Amino acid sequence: MSLTARLKAEAEAAGFTMCRICGPGDIPKVPERLGAFLEKGRHGQMGWLEDRASWRGDPQVLWPEARSIIMLGESYTPDHDPMAILGAPERAAISVYAQNRDYHDIVKKRLKRLGRWLIAEAEAAGEEAEIKVFVDTAPVAEKPLGEAAGLGWQGKHTNLVSREMGSWFFLGSIFTTLDLERDAPETDHCGSCRRCLDICPTDAFPAPYQLDARRCISYLTIEHRGPVPEELREGLGNRIYGCDDCLAVCPWNKFAAEASDIRYAAREDLLAPDLAELASLDDAGFRARFSGSPIKRIGRDRFVRNVAYAIGNSGSARLRPAAAALAEDPDETVRDAALWALARLPA
């Protein structure tokens, strides 16, 4: 059995759902596409996309010694309907990926273990090997690389879709100096379907296969600092951290694999938390509640800002006291959100 074949078997044994391989020069269209995205300002406040565009656009610039890129998919398919919570406006909708432990930590540890195995196997065969592992926090074009490696294709919502994993999977990569066998790239299987485009509450897709992050709820609730533009606030609904609408409606989810790790299963207190309870969190309470969660990184003020918008969209008089309390908050953006909410709620 070749090293590449053994690697794929080891990846599955380590907990990854899929493992495919491409080369660092297999995404030649990315620099032009990324440049057009940045030129139109569709990255919003994500200045880091622009700062390291040359690295993100070409893996050979990021690490010239790399000869192969191992792309790995790790399923986090929910065991509940993620759209059901949208019908409970007094409760908060949290993106599926953030309902338990931070996937960055889980996936990175798994990647490092697999990388160490690969180095040991190469050395046993008398070949030197180096690796670098990445999970969503480095300037790596993971979705185009995933398509080039054959994990899936970038759908009309710009996320990766897989015939084996549906839409619910994390991506990780191992860059290596080893020359491994390549897989064939995946082709587009969206056809005439446009469910992901039509479901978007804030019209974040100017055209199929294009995203304007400035209108995307995931961007607005996680990356955007300061007040959310008023014309977009109603579209947030009760989504306080991320949005799964375009993922959840994808027909390919009927083939989705089960979540690969129990730590991705939703915590009971994050499935449908009460908005009033979340609005009462101070900084210490926020940190305690979301320790080990990806939600922690946005900080208490941005989180409570999102909660205030959800309260304003709830139409619930019961939540007026929570909004009134936030109208006295030390943070100016939270106060603005609370006053907006109060103006919309019945007395």
UniProtKB/TrEMBL annotation:
Compartments where found: Cytoplasm
The family database entries (InterPro entries) matched by this protein are listed as: 4Fe4S_Fe-S-bd, 4Fe4S_Fe_S_CS, ARM-like, HEAT_type_2, QueG, QueG_DUF1730
The record, for Pfam families, names:
Fer4_16, QueG_DUF1730
4Fe-4S ferredoxin-type domain spans which residues? 181-210
Q: Which SUPFAM superfamilies match?
A: alpha-helical ferredoxin (SSF46548)
Please report which protein family the annotation says this sequence is part of.
Belongs to the QueG family.
Q: What is this protein called?
A: Epoxyqueuosine reductase
